[in-house]
Structure formats: C-alpha cells, structure tokens
C-alpha cells in the first residue's frame, strides 16, 4: 500500500528526504560547516524560547498577512534562495508554484537550476538573489536580466567567506553529470531509484549548470565554474554595496547581517531591508543563532528599515517567536528543501501549510488578532539569551 504523501512536521519531511535522496544530494542539503555548531544552535535556540499563552478571550478571526518591502504575502514566511541542484527535476519552478499557490514570496538564488524568467512566470512575486561575483559589467547584466524578467526585489547575500570542510565529510558533487559520472556515482544513486526515476521521466539527468549566470551569447557555466568566478572576485567594500544598491533601482534586501555595526552600515548604504542571517550555519561555524542577535539589530535599525530573519526555522511557532522579537518576516531554507525532496511541489505546499497553521495556533493561543500584535511579552526568554554583536548595548556585547 502506498504511504500517504502528506507529512505533519518538517522533521518528518526531512526523514523522508533522507530516505529518498542519494546520500550526496541529501548531504548537500544538510550542508553546515566545521563542527556544525551554528546549524544546530539556529534550531535549538528556538526551542529555548517559551510561549506565555492565554486561556480565554481568543479571537476567532486572525490576520496573518503582511507585506515585505511593499510586496504582499499571505503570511510572513518567504522562500529563502538556495543554490541547490538535483533535488527534483522541476527544482525552483516547483518551489515557485508552491509559493504562488500559498500566496508567499519566492527567493531565487543566482546559483539555482532554473532561469529567472521561468521562475517569475510561475510566481510573479519573486525576489532575485545575487552574490558579489564577477566584474561590475557582469553584475549589471545579471541585474538587468532579473529586472526584465520581472523580479520584484534584489537580495544581496554578502556573508559567504568560503569556509569549507565538515567533520562529518562533504558530499562528492561532480562538476557535470554525464554517463561516465553517472556510472561512477551508481553505488550512491542506485539505492534511490525513485529519485533517479523522477529525472529519467524528464529525459535528462541533472546537468548542474547555472542558467542565471549565463553571459549574453555564451553558455551557462557549471556550478563549480560559477563558484570559481565568485571565489576569485575581490570581496566587496561598503562602497561596492552602495554601488550595487544604486544599480538596482527597486527594493533591496541585504542578507547575512549578525552585527549591529553592520546593520547601521547597511542602512547608510540605502538598503530597504536586511535579513539577520548566518547562511543557515553553512559559513563561519560558531556564529551565534540568528534569533539570539535579532533583538539587538531590531533595536538599532528597526525603525528605519525592515528586519527579517533566517536560520533554524522549522515550525510555525518559530515564526511567531521571530515576529515577537521584532522580525517583519522570516525566510526558510532547509524546511522547504526537505518538502521538495519528500513530495515535489505538493511537499513544499505541505511545508508552507505546516508553517502557516503553527503560526496561526500561536497567534490564537497568545490571544492576538494577527501577527502584528506579537511582542516580547508573549515569550519566556531565558536569562542571557539575547546577544549583541558589534554594538554597545547589553552585558554580553562584543565591542569593536
Ligand atoms: C543547501 C543550501 C544552499 C543554499 N544556497 C544559498 C544561495 O544560493 N544563496 C543564498 O543567499 N543563501 C543560500 N543558502 C542559505 C539560505 O538562503 C538560508 O539563509 C538558510 O538556509 C536558512 O537556514 P535554514 O536552512 O535553517 O532555514 C543555502 C542554504 C542551504 C541549506
């Protein structure tokens, strides 16, 4: 008998993803770096926060909707951009359709497997994400392409510092999957015939190219070709960030802030919003959990720009906690990737439904009429939970 494809928690989706994906693809989604401390803390810090619910006077109607940089979303969860190939043949188009069906915003990575034009066609509320990679002409050309495709905002992710190596070992991802590579990978892939079959039905193997970084008149680079260009690009200064912001004449979100001083510089650079993020624990390990540094950043710049958060969100209750501590919205990464692996587009919709209903339960139980009423008074916050990096406030701050 075929098992019900619906799952009730993100943990269950992850469990199914692990069973369905070849080990190397699953390993690429787990990601993390070094000891894996940050990835673990992002998740566990949410569990360390408690709720302070009410028992009566609840509201039958609750409004979860909001806007992010002027774009409407039915509830405050966005798809975080992830440059992961080979999870599902429809990749980011399936994710974008799921997001559109649930009325939420799609973040598309420039390292994604699907062209921005196809993704915007599937979800007009798409934000396009770029790294600081290549020369300025190439970056302008990529921004122009995304703008012409109809992307509604730019996400600049600037927190990557090429930290490689994991104590549990990194998956061996090939540069390109041709017949020879497929044979070499066969022992890892054959125990997962369902995954292979989903690709086989489309008549192609995952080609691991990066269509959004294709130069005009050229061919799309491979994932590792694009990565090499990025590694060779001199890192950006704050003037470069200002330049990038000026080149994109629409809403601009800077992703990867954990320090108060950086948040202030981001405001000076003219950003519309920032995401408190440590790249899901994939970059500098032992960077603190994002939820612990969120309040300091909201306090510093929250009255000037929108502050979002990503990292470790696995439940609707986590979304409520981030909002209570001042986030306008959150972005999710692994949660929807597990859903995509478990059940394609429907699996991503399933994850979004889990997030929505968990958030709604929290808003109901806390006695609110909507997400805008959430505040720190709704939470039980352990002593010493909040951290301030690169700022003056708080006893556990790290000073310049
Ligand atoms: C496998 C993987 C690939 C990612 N690729 C990108 C990317 O291309 N661009 C980007 O801005 N962030 C990327 N991220 C980071 C996510 O956008 C997001 O910050 C992170 O996943 C949030 O943490 P969570 O997975 O715990 O939700 C990636 C994350 C993962 C797990």
Describe the overall structure.
The protein is of the alpha/beta class. Helix content is 41%, strand content 11%. The protein contains 14 helices and twelve strands. The protein has an eight-stranded parallel β-sheet with strand order 4-11-10-9-8-7-6-5. A two-stranded antiparallel sheet has the order 1-12. A two-stranded antiparallel ribbon has the order 2-3. Helix 6 (136-149) links the parallel strand 6 (126-130) and strand 7 (153-157). The chain is globular. Mean pLDDT is 92; it is low at 394-400. The site of flavin mononucleotide (FMN) has 26 residues, from helix 2 and helix 14.
Task: Please give the number of β-strands.
Answer: 12
Give helix % range: 40-55%
Distance between the termini: 61 Å
Alpha-carbon Rg, integer: 20 Å
Sheet with most strands: 8 strands, parallel
Specify the overall morphology: globular
Strand order of the largest sheet: 4-11-10-9-8-7-6-5
Mean pLDDT: 92
Order of helices and strands: HHHEEEEHEHEHEHHHHEHEHEHEHE
